[in-house]
Amino acid sequence: MTIYDYLLGELRKYGSIHLTLLDPDKIDIDKFVELSKNAEKSGSSAVMVGGSLGVNEKLLDEYLEAAKREVNIPFILFPGNIAGLSSKADALFYLSVLNSLDPYYIIGAQVQASILLAKRYTSLDVISMAYIIVGEGGAAGYVSNARMLPFERDDIIIAYALAAKYLGFNVIYLEAGSGAKEPVRPSILAKMKRLVDRPIMVGGGIRTPEVAYSIALAGADMIVTGTVVEESPSMVLSDIVDAVHRGGMDRKNGSSRNEESKQ
Questions:
Q1: Fewer CB within 10 Å of terminal CB in the chain, N or C?
Q2: 204 is an annotated ligand-binding site residue
């Protein structure tokens, strides 16, 4: 079974799933292992590993080797550039920043990585991802030179997601940016879910179980939190994960449609 098949199985089980994002450049190896263990204990379906700056293969290898001795859920690379590859991970989100103004982040880095994946990193499950940066965008938007899509133009955001569907991407990620003041709006997800039959991932600005629940209920299949995990290690991550699962199951059972009918 591929890691993508595993994620789809988790979606069938929970409705919506949670993924923990950790940036090795921001934390030491002991903290990385600790947070990875907490992610598994709290119910995260996988750990995403990567960052926009400061990550390299040697660092990734060390962190992943240490964590995988104690953690059983998959580790999926989430690279900011081709330096973010490691054979120690289980899978790779092979992403293209669709709204970047720099062709390197749309296809250039992917071409460079393709040779490495074919010859050196053959053990990685490759999951294609359309990466669409919305709202503030954070460091990801700045580093990838993206033309951020404002929440007010949900028609444009949905058009990008439809393009990603027709281009054949496995996953569509709406990224509001690390530490964003506002997460992706549930209203956008509800409209998108009716038109796009691909797993929709959402990250950025999700700090509370209430927000996580509303986003899952509206249509997010995968919800990613990172900053809140790194900056508030004492926070009970399981509360957010439980909220994600409840939102996903309530959506499957029709609660989101019921809410819409009341408005």
A1: C
A2: yes
Residues in the chain: 263
Q: Would the pLDDT of 218 be above 90?
A: yes
Which helix (H) or strand (E) covers residue 6, if one does?
helix 3-14
Please count the structural domains in the chain: 1
**Does 138 show up as a binding residue in the annotation?**
no
d(CA 213, CA 208): 9
Say whether 143 sits in a helix, a strand or coil: helix
Q: Is 137 within any annotated ligand binding site?
A: no
Indicate whether 263 belongs to any domain: no
pLDDT tens across 105-137, in order?
999 999 999 999 999 999 999 999 999 999 988
Instruction: Give the 3-state DSSP-derived string for 49-66, with helices as H, strands as E and coil as C.
Output: ECCCCCCCHHHHHHHHHH
The annotation status of 54 as a binding-site residue, yes or no, is no
Task: Tell me which residue range forms the domain holding 176.
Answer: 3-258
CA 36/CA 71 separation, integer angstroms: 7
What is the average pLDDT across 39-52? 91
Q: Is the pLDDT of residue 261 over 50?
A: no
Q: Is 45 annotated as a binding residue?
A: no
2 marked as part of a ligand binding site: no
Looking at the predicted structure, is the pLDDT value of residue 231 above 70?
no
Please tell me the distance from the alpha carbon of residue 56 to that of residue 44, in angstroms, as a whole number: 25
Residue 227 marked in a binding site: yes
CATH of the domain at 223: 3.20.20.390
pLDDT for 262: 44
pLDDT of the residue at 122: 96
Retrieve residue 150's tokens.
Answer: 């404002």
